[in-house]
Design a protein that fits this description.
heterodimer, A: 198 residues, Ribosomal Protein L24e, Chain: T, two-stranded antiparallel ribbon, 6 helices, 6% strand, elongated, B: 160 residues, 2 strands
């Protein structure tokens, strides 16, 4: 089984997958899916499209030149089967993959180094250049305080109204507590409802 | 056939790819061969007025001159200034045949250097002007063409 690379995005193309275009000079172009085929037909440059492997390599986002990447290649000389050779190759493959992953990780970390400091510096610069941003925060705090004050004032008013009601309804029964008065209110409401239903 | 049309993108009508055009431009012989093709009545202008970068035939020299001044041609020349994308690069990006790709990059750099060193000769071949069709077929240069040649020669002497 031979796994080829997509001409456009460099992803593996397995047998029975994708589509092939043969140019009139007999050059083969394999594509993993219609997305890549269409882009090729529209003459897009894979180096300029962010989702392709070619872009990531060309823009320095990934490890490009490395000794671990040089092993996979087409060798046009057939090798006679040898049990020991196959065994050593198999162990070597996993070991190489391990090393490659380690190096890629290191590359990524190195690429991302200093990003935090850069971001903080950019934020500082933004605030320094636009002092009104800090004033916006002041306005927010002031509005919040105003809202809180308004809510408190409303609560106090409600309490006053409730106490006034109590005074008017329960003038005779002075000794009753607030909870009892509320129960009475509910009963009155229920009675009213029954009346409306009837 | 507008700017975006499915008909334009059919592989049936595929025009010459950039990597092939780059090969055309890589040697003086190939440029000379394309600029001086045998008379072919199936091609526009009998195949005498060809733009190598755009892989296009034109009817006469006047139209070629206009085309060279235009946006489409300039864009194409700009595209040809970088290394053309090939399958080798796609393979190298996924870690297959990397050494082969490195060799091709090395070759490309050498060729570019060679081109930069012999820029005048390359440009002279690419920008060569041609007489009208009657003159080419009969072999007798027209008066206008002779005048133009003299003028251009005079200009060159003036600049030098």
């Amino acid at each position: 089984m031979r796994v080829v690379q997509c001409h456009f995005c460099s992803s593996p193309v397995y047998p029975l997958h994708g589509i092939m275009f043969v140019r009139n000079d007999a050059k083969e172009f394999r594509f993993c899916r219609s997305k890549c085929h269409k882009a090729f037909k529209q003459r897009r440059n894979p180096r300029k499209l962010r989702w392709t492997k070619a872009f990531r390599k060309a823009a320095g986002k990934e490890l490009v030149v490395d000794s671990t990447l040089t092993f996979a290649a087409r060798r046009n000389v057939p090798v006679r089967y040898n049990r020991d050779l196959v065994a050593t190759t198999l162990t070597a493959m996993s070991r190489i993959e391990e090393i490659r992953q380690k190096r890629e990780r290191a590359f990524y970390k190195n690429r991302m180094r200093g990003n935090k400091e850069k971001k903080i510096a950019a934020d500082r610069k933004l605030v320094a250049e636009n002092p009104e941003l800090l004033r916006m925060r002041d306005v927010e705090i002031r509005r919040k305080a105003e809202r809180l004050a308004a809510r408190e004032a409303a609560m106090e008013e409600e309490e006053e109204i409730a106490s006034e009601d109590m005074m008017s309804e329960d003038e005779e029964m002075e000794s009753e507590s607030e909870s009892e008065s509320e129960q009475v209110k509910q009963k009155v409401l229920l009675k009213n409802k029954r009346k409306t239903r009837a | 056939m507008g700017r975006y049309s499915v008909k334009r993108y059919k592989t049936k009508r595929r025009t010459r790819d950039l990597d092939l055009v780059y090969d055309d431009l890589s040697s003086k012989e190939s440029i000379y061969k394309l600029k001086n093709q045998p008379l072919d009545e199936t091609k526009p202008g009998l195949g005498q007025y060809y733009c190598v970068e755009c892989a296009k035939y034109f009817e006469n020299q006047l139209i070629v001159d206009r085309h060279v001044k235009g946006k489409v041609h300039k864009r194409r020349v700009k595209e040809l200034k970088v290394k053309p994308y090939t399958n080798l690069e796609a393979e190298a990006a996924s870690g297959v045949n990397l050494l082969k790709f490195m060799d091709s990059v090395e070759k490309y750099k050498q060729l570019e250097q060679h081109k930069a060193e012999n820029k005048q000769e390359y440009d002279a071949l690419l920008n060569q002007k041609k007489d009208n069709l009657d003159a080419i077929i009969t072999g007798v240069p027209s008066e206008e063409f002779q005048k133009q040649q003299e003028e251009s020669k005079g200009e060159v002497e003036m600049t030098e």
